[in-house]
Specification:
Length: 246
């Protein structure tokens, strides 16, 4: 890889932006395609498939062999609340290769003993987000504290950042009150409609572990939405990050 291409690719990685480096194997020429350029590129459909899979590899285009180096930001899961559900959720999320961070200003709950091997920030959400960096559409956020002082600022930040998944724990009545508060805070009904509330797929979950399963299932379903749509339409389904048949 040429040094200028490597530097440009690293810059996109640091900014958590997807990018694809196209290398012509015949002459070694390279071009970096950034996110804003994907849709108008002649290889747009190939890029879409590769971005869904997250895999680099060779493609044949009009008799030319091209190697596509695919860079997709790691999917990040921000768990708001160091609660029992979070304790069950974190190891499951790690098994799914999600980059997990637990945020809770309540130091009695946010302890390394309760969350070993997990990035843990005993901070208020706004302060924690300042440490983490920009939230983006490769970020999922699950608000689990039941405390509006903690959950609401997190939800507002996630919605404004266009996170791909935003969920909040609570009954339908508490969620209705939450929507009222967020509306009073200036969010539109279209924005708050993106919140998955009550959080998680309806699998009849009762225990913290079962609720964690339902949350992660909903996160994965949201992440793989294009794959699910393709299956529904009778198109080949892309298996993201896995070398298995759809």
């Amino acid at each position: 890889m040429k040094l200028d291409s490597l530097a440009a690719l690293n810059a996109e990685r640091e900014a958590r932006r997807p990018a694809i480096l196209v290398t012509d194997t015949a002459d070694g020429s390279q071009r970096l395609v950034r996110e804003a350029e994907f849709a108008t590129d002649p290889l747009a459909e190939t890029f879409r498939e590769r971005l869904l899979s997250g895999k680099s590899g060779l493609v044949e285009v009009e008799g030319r062999s091209l190697f596509l180096t695919v860079q997709v930001p790691p999917v990040r899961l921000l768990v708001i609340g160091a609660v029992h559900i979070s304790q069950a959720l974190c190891p499951m999320a790690a098994a799914l290769e999600l980059d997990v961070t637990v945020i809770d200003p309540r130091t009695a709950f946010a302890t390394p003993e309760r969350f070993p091997d997990v990035t843990l920030l005993a901070e208020w959400p706004d302060d924690a987000f300042a440490q983490i960096g920009t939230l983006d559409r490769y970020t999922a956020l699950a608000a689990l504290t039941h405390d509006p002082k903690i959950d609401d600022p997190s939800l507002i930040a996630a919605l404004k950042a266009d996170c791909f998944y935003v969920g909040a724990l609570g009954s339908r009545k508490s969620h209705a009150r939450r929507l009222e508060r967020l509306g009073d805070a200036g969010l539109s009904p279209e924005a708050t409609a993106r919140i998955h509330g009550p959080i998680g797929l309806d699998i009849g979950a009762i225990t913290p572990a079962e609720i964690a399963v339902s949350i992660l299932a909903e996160v994965v379903a949201t992440l793989r939405r294009d794959r699910i749509k393709g299956r529904t339409a009778g198109k080949p389904a892309d298996c993201m990050r896995h070398d298995i048949d759809a």
